[in-house]
Amino acid sequence: MLRIFNKILRTGRLTEPLPAGEATVAELGAACQREIAAKFGGSLAIRMVDAGSCNGCELEMHAVNNSFYDIERFGIHFVASPRHADLLLVTGPVSRHMQAALLRTYAATPDPKLVVAMGDCGADGGEFGISYASCGAVANVIPVDAVIRGCPPTPLQLLQGLLQVLQIKTPE
Amino acid sequence: MSRQEQRVRPAQTTAFAAQLANADIDLTSVAGPAGPETLLELNPADWGRAAAVAATAGLRFAAVWGEHRPPELLVTTLLAGGDGHLLLRTVLPDSAPQLPSQTPSFPAADRPERHLQDMFGVRFVDHPDGRRWIRHRAWSAKWYPLRREAAIAGTPVAQTAPDRSYPFAPIAGSGVYEIPVGPVHAGIIEPGHFRFQAVGEDVLRLEAHLGYVHKGIEKLAEGRDLAGLARLAGRVSGDSSVVHTWAACQAAEHALGIDVPPRALALRAIFAERERIANHLGDIGAICNDVGFAFAQVQMTRLRELWQRTSAAVFGHRLLMDRVVPGGVAVDLVSDQLTPLHQEAQQLHQEVKSLMPVLLEYPSLQDRLRNTGVLSPANAERLGVLGYLGRASNLQDDLRRDAPYPPYDRLHIEVPAYLDGDIEKRVQVRGDEILIALGLIETLLEKLPEGELQAKLPLPNRECAGLGLVEGWRGETLAYLRLNAQGRVLRYFPRDPSWLSWPALEVLTPGNIVPDFPVCNKSVNGSYSGIDL
Ligand code: SF4
Domain end: B89, B108, B124, which one? Predict the structure, then answer.
C-alpha cells in the first residue's frame, strides 16, 4: 500500500506544455463543456458501437479516457447501454453481420440523439468499402450527423470532431 | 514462483516425412511457397491420418487455409516443431470437395476448418462439429465467397437479418440457466456473442459465436498490388498493424526472392517491439481495471500514451500503421532521435520494473487474479496456444528464437514462462516481455545499420507464392500470399494468433464466476477483427 501511495505521489499531476498553434486538450475540452452545458444539461453520454472496425479506432477511443485527455472532466462519458446515451459513436465500415445490431442499437437510443461516425471506415467504408460482407459507411445504415476522419483519428482529432458536432447540431 | 527454464519444443519437423512414411502415407515433396519451410503433398484420403501422426510426434498445429485454382482446391496446413515449420498440402477437385478433418487430432483446427468450409465449400467428413462458423445470414449457404468465380459484390439484401438461428450447444440439467451476451457489449470493445450456461454464479460452459466483424478481407485482397495489400494487412487487426503488415510483406519478399535492406529490417523490429510494448502496457492496466484496481490502469495508460506519442513524433503514426511497406519501411530514424529513444527506453524500463512488483504483490489484486482463469499447461499444449497465453502456461514457442528471421537471427531472445497458467501469470509474462522488448530496442538502436530503407520490387513475371511468419505481441502471425505474373494478389490469407487463443477462453472460463468473465477475456485478449477477417 505504501508503495502505491509513493508511486501516486511521485507521479504527481500530469501537465504538459502547450503546443504552439494547435488547439489544446484543455481548450477543446472547455469548449465542449460549454456546448454540453447549454444543450445536454451538463453531461454527454456516449454509447460506442463497433460495427466492423479493425479495432484501431477503439484503441484511440480508450486513449481519450487516459489522464492526459480524461474527457470525463468535460462532462463526456461512455455508457454501457444505448438507453442511457445521447450520442452513438460508431466505428468501422458496417459489416453486414453487424447491420441488424447497429439498427437495433440505434432504435434503442432514446430521441433526441446524435450519431457520429468515427474513422475513415465509418466515414466512407475506408479500406474495406462496400462488398458482400460490408455495407461501407455508417451513413448507409443509420442517419449520421457528423464524421470524424482519420485512420484512426487521434484523441485530439476525436475531441475536435466531437466539439464540431456539438457546435453545429442540436439533438432533434 | 520463479520463471521456468528455457525450453524449445522437442518435436522436429525434419523427422516428420519419415514418420509419415512409417504410417504408410504416400507423399510427394513439392516446391511450396518461397520461404524456409518444406511442403509435403499428400492424398486427400490421408489428410486426417497425417494429422494424427503429427499430433503423436508432438508437432503443433499452426494454421489451415484454402485456395481456389480452378478446377482445383488446395488445402494447406502449417505445422510447427522446435526447429521451424512444415507445410502439408492436398489437392481436391472443386466440385463437391471433401476431406477428412484434422480436428480429431488437433482441436485447434476446428474453427479454421469451419471457416474453410463456409468460404470455399469444402466438406470435412468426420468433423466433430459441422456447424457453420463465419457465415451468418449475409450470404446463402451455397455461395462461397473465396471461390474464384464469386464476385466480391455478392448479392446482398438491403437489410441482413440478425443471426438468430445459430445452433448453440443445448442447455441441460436442472437449475442451469443461460446468459446471452452481445454482439454489442457494455464496454469499448469489439462485437461478438457469448453464451454462458451457469448455475448460480458459476459458469458451467461458455460458447463464443464470432464473425460479426467479417468484412471480406481475404476477398478484398484479390487483385490488389503490393502497396494496397500492405495497407489492408495493417488493418486486419488494428492492435497488430505492424506485425500483420510485416508478415504480408515478408511473404511478398519471399515470393519475389528479394532481400530487405538491414536498416529496414532493424526498423521493422523496432516497430514490432514498440507495438508489443504498447499493447502489453494497455492490457496490464485494463486487466487490473477489470477487477476495480484503477491505480494500475491510470499508471499504465499514462505510460502507453507517452509511448504512442513518441511513435507519432518519431515515426509518424501513433499505432505505427503503414510504416512497414513492401521491400522495407516508409520512414527513417534520424540520428538525433537515437538518444531520446534510448532515454525513453531506459525510463520506461525503470517505471515498469518498479511498477510490476507493486501490482503483483498487492494482496487484493492477488486475490482476484491468482488461480482465476486457469489454463493448465496440458490444455495449453492441446490447444496449441501462442504468445503470452502459452508462456503463462509453460509453452514457450517464440519464432524470434525458434525460427528466427532477420534481424532477430542476430539477437538473443529470452522467453519468459511460468507453470500456473492463471491471469496473474499472464500479467507477469507481459511485464517480463516489456522489459525484454525494451532491451531488444536498445540493442537494435545501438547497432542500427546504415543504408537503404527499401529494396526495389521486381515484377514476378510468373506466378509465385510466399509465406511470412512473424512473432507478434500475441504470438506467431502468418501470412500466405500468391501473386500473379503482374505482381497482383491472387490469394492472401492472414492468420492472427487469436485463432488459437479464442478456444482457450472457452476452456479457461468454466469454473469461474460470471463476474470474472471480463477479466478472463481481457487476460486472453483475442482479436475479433483478426479472426473474423
Ligand atoms: S478507420 Fe482505420 S483504425 Fe479505424 S476501423 Fe478503419 S481501418 Fe481501423
Answer: B124
Task: Please list the alpha-helical segments (H only) found in B361-497.
Answer: 363-369, 377-383, 387-391, 399-402, 423-446
Q: Are residues B233 and B85 in the same domain?
A: no
Residues B110 and B243 in one domain: no
Among residues B69, B94, B124, which one ends one of the domains? Answer: B124
Sequential pLDDT tens for chain B (533 residues): 567 777 788 888 888 888 888 888 888 877 778 777 789 999 999 999 999 999 999 999 999 999 999 999 999 999 999 888 999 999 999 998 999 999 999 999 999 999 999 999 999 999 999 899 999 999 999 999 999 999 999 999 999 999 988 989 888 888 999 999 989 988 899 999 999 999 999 999 999 999 999 999 999 999 999 999 999 999 999 999 999 999 999 999 999 999 999 999 999 999 999 999 999 999 999 999 999 899 999 999 999 999 999 999 999 999 999 999 999 999 999 999 999 999 999 999 999 999 999 999 999 999 999 999 999 999 999 999 999 999 999 999 999 998 889 999 999 999 999 999 999 999 999 999 999 999 999 999 999 999 999 999 999 989 999 999 999 999 999 999 999 999 999 999 999 999 999 999 999 999 999 999 999 999 999 999 999 99
Domain housing B17: 13-124
With beta carbons less than 8 A apart as the criterion, state whether B133 and B118 touch.
yes
How far, in Å, from the CA of B235 to the mean position of ligand 1?
A: 7
> What is the count of structural domains for chain A?
1
| Residues with C-beta less than 6 Å from any ligand 1 atom | A 53-54, 56-57, 91-92, 119-121, 126-127, 151-152; B 235, 238
B67: which residues sit within 8 A by CB, 6+ positions away? B73, B74, B75, B76, B482, B491, B493
Overall domain count for chain B: 2
Q: Kindly report the CATH number assigned to the domain that includes residue A112.
A: 3.40.50.12280
Domain-located, residue A52? yes
Q: Kindly report the pTM of this predicted structure.
A: 0.94
Instruction: Choose among B155, B188, B358: nearest Cβ to A61.
Output: B188
Residue A14 in domain:
no
At B481, phi and psi to the nearest 5? -140, 135
Of B150, B214, B358, the CB nearest to A95: B214
Pairing of strands A76-78, A44-50: parallel
The CB density around residue B302, as the number of other CB atoms within 10 Å, is: 18
